[in-house]
Amino acid sequence: MHHFYGHLPDSKNVGVGKNFTAKQKSEIIKENMKRNNGVVRSDLSGKKLVKPEKSTKGVTPSPNEWQIDHIKPKREGGSNSYKNILENTIIASVSHAIMVSTYPELNYEHSWDGINYNYNDGEGTRMTISFEENYCVGGICNFNYPYIKDLNKYLEGVPKDIKDTFIDETSQYLLEEIDGKTIPVLTTMFWFKKDKINFVGKYEDFLMNGGNILEEFSIEKQKYFEKCEEYYEMNFNQISLLKSIVEKKFRNIKHDIYLSPKEVKMIGGNKKNLYESQESFKELDIYIDL
């Protein structure tokens, strides 16, 4: 979808170099549907588009998923470490679970499946990070760049444990159908081991092939909280709930959490869409009773 939506009111957080907010994305999608009798169509070709699905292991997404065109965000400095990346993916996922009842059109953006965190920005980039005990492996597909055609050759020299996790887990969430074959499609990969980031080739190439998306998850934890609050335009109750849940999760990531009726009320949003929040929370072993 292209930028034919200049009449829509700007978010209060709009600014040069900033990402779209969740509200902006939601309003663009709704406006497109309004103009096209309830379906989403490409503003260029008129082709019918479908809502992106959450990344699922072994499942090839539709080639007609919608994307919201956008200039890629500026680079953001941060701390590249396993712990930092893991904590920020949790903050992102809890924020998403709280706010998806407000923005159900964006339920595909963040999801977890076992050790695998999946991110789809709806703007042409997918990322999966597989978190093992002492390392994590990530794959990125940015549809604005050429994909890696000879993956076996690309992976030469990658440590065996990293390669095994990538093949068995990470790559299975980045499948596409190319020339009648379903294969992993990515533009770059990375892994963290002993808190050191590694990638194939030069760092500049990693960034140019979509790796800049990782930098969004590498900023200091408090700044990432603020980033999520701004993106979703959270109210006081939602911010308080986010920090409370994340604090509990950080104490023991594998521990089940049950939200009280009072906490469920703090989610806000549209009550009829709370099942979306319920599903996203469940992926994190967080449970709500509706």
Structural notes for this entry:
α2 runs parallel beside α6 (221-232). The chain has 290 residues and is α+β, with helices and mostly antiparallel strands. The longest helix has 18 residues, at 82-99. The protein has one domain (54-67, 76-290). The two termini are 35 Å apart. The chain has helices at 22-35, 82-99, 151-154, 160-168, 203-215, 221-232, 236-251, 261-266, 274-282, and strands at 40-41, 48-49, 110-113, 116-120, 125-131, 135-142, 175-178, 181-184, 188-193, 196-199, 257-258, 286-287. β3 (110-113) and β4 (116-120) form a beta hairpin.
Topology pattern, helix = H, strand = E? HEEHEEEEHHEEEEHHHEHHE
Number of helices: 9
Q: Roughly what percent helix?
A: 25-40%
How many strand segments?
A: 12
Give the low-pLDDT segments.
1-8, 70-78
The tally of structural domains comes to: 1
Percentage of residues in DSSP E strands = 15-25%
Q: Which outline best applies?
A: globular
Structural class based on helices, strands and sheet pairing: alpha+beta
* Average predicted confidence as pLDDT: 85
Report on the biggest sheet.
Answer: 6 strands, antiparallel
